[in-house]
Amino acid sequence: MSRTAQREAPAAPASGVLLDGLVVASHRRHFAVRLDDGESLECVLKGRSMTLACGDRVRIARMAGGGSIEEVAPRSTLFYRSDAFKEKLIAANVTQVVGVVAPDLSVDEELVTRWIVAAEVHDCRFVLAANKSDKPDFDALLARLAPYAALGYTVVPLSAKRDVSPILPWLAGQRSVLIGQSGMGKSTILNAVTPSAGAKTAEISEALATGRHTTTHSTLYPLPDVLGGGWVVDSPGMKAFGLAHVAPDALEHAFPELRPLIGHCRFRDCRHDREPGCAVQAAVERGAVAPHRVALLHALIADSKAARVRGR
Ligand SMILES: Nc1nc2c(ncn2[C@@H]2O[C@H](COP(=O)(O)OP(=O)(O)OP(=O)(O)O)[C@@H](O)[C@H]2O)c(=O)[nH]1
Ligand SMILES: [Mg+2]
Ligand SMILES: [Zn+2]
After folding, report:
1. Domains in the chain, start-ordered, CATH in brackets?
2. In this structure, which ligand is nearest to the CA of 213?
3. From the CA of 275, which ligand is nearest?
4. How far does residue 76's CA lie from ligand 3's centre (Å)?
5. What is the rounded (10 degree) CA torsion for 101, 102, 105, 108?
6. pLDDT, tens digit, for every residue of 231-250?
7. Residue to substitute in 111, 134, 201, 221 for testing ligand 1 pocket (most ligand atoms within 8 angstroms of CB)
8. Residue 232 and residue 190 in contact, taking contact as beta carbons nearer than 8 Å
9. Does the CB atom of residue 179 touch ligand 1 within 6 A?
10. pLDDT for the residue 3
């Protein structure tokens, strides 16, 4: 990604001292920053060309009533989604993506795969949190998630309302981002993990009926010390997850079942479509790879190429 190292020449701040901190909430061009000494500061972004997300390490110049963000440290990852027109930053420097699903909605296989692809291209661990295990139709949800477990992704059944403990070992020591559709219980998980969070949650009927998301912008919460540090970012519910920013060639590497096959097709530039000697199609024919996964790969490649043609 081209966005991993952004720095702007710092203008001399009044005090001459820059303070180190972590972006914990972002709303348009206003940011809440937690300084390393624990103080919280409302900050504005200095450079117009800079972009910031929760999880960014920044340097601040103190101003009356808050701070001005002067520098952004190079990032290990920048997790974002995109569509044809814009990019939506979700979190920076994450090590893990936690997709949250629940029995209220049928599993959107394409959406889940898109989260996984986003995690894979950033070398982030991906975990599926199957929430609301107290609901009667939970077993049907688990059955729908079995193919992801077969691909090697951990599926963690839990009830954020009754017992959040199954997810704790997965969050411990990681810098995670919770993603998922509205009403699946991301904020409820967060409140149960870090009781001081106080993130707003809402009745699902309310969220689905009004189409309004309870969480309106991403917020970062440090994990309690007993979990060995790290943090979790709670993000607003999302129905779509555009991947147009991922280069076409990177996409096939994000499908773990295809990785051992890459390089084994007869043609080096094989598109795994109808070319003779295609190792991917051969694997589909012998039932080792699900055809809908290959179809989705083709759809993602087409989107990514179309976005590039449009000049992105
Ligand atoms: N039965 C049951 N309900 C739950 C559980 N976890 C969360 N809920 C409920 O699901 C509803 C939505 O929860 P939220 O935490 O607000 O969902 P969210 O994913 O943060 O939603 P957005 O912020 O809109 O993206 C609330 O009414 C929660 O009380 C659970 O484990 N079991
Ligand atoms: Mg929420
Ligand atoms: Zn091929």
Report:
1. 19-72 (2.40.50.140), 78-234 (3.40.50.300), 248-309 (1.10.40.50)
2. 1
3. 3
4. 32
5. 20
6. 999 998 888 899 988 999 99
7. 201
8. yes
9. no
10. 45
Q: Which two tokens stand for residue 172?
A: 């411990």
**pTM here?**
0.89
Q: Tens digits of per-residue pLDDT, 16-31? A: 689 999 999 988 778 9
Write down the pLDDT at residue 10. Answer: 46
What is the reported pLDDT for 9?
46
Alpha-carbon distance 132 to 203, whole Å? Answer: 13
Q: Are 191 and 198 in contact (CB under 8 A)?
A: yes
Here the tokens at position 135 are 């609901």
Nearest CA to ligand 1 atom 14: 185
CB of 164 within 6 A of ligand 1: the answer is no
Q: Whose CA is nearest to atom 16 of ligand 1?
A: 201
Residue 204 predicted with pLDDT over 60: no
For residues 110 and 142, the answer to whether their CB atoms sit within 8 Å is no
Place of tokens 């096959």: 261
Q: How far is the CA of 188 from the centre of ligand 2 (A)?
A: 7
Contacts of 168 (CB under 8 A, 6+ apart): 193, 227
Residue 144 near residue 107 (C-beta atoms within 8 A): yes
Pairwise CA distance, residues 230 & 227, whole Å: 8
Tens digits of per-residue pLDDT, 138-183?
A: 999 999 999 999 999 999 999 999 999 999 999 999 999 999 999 9
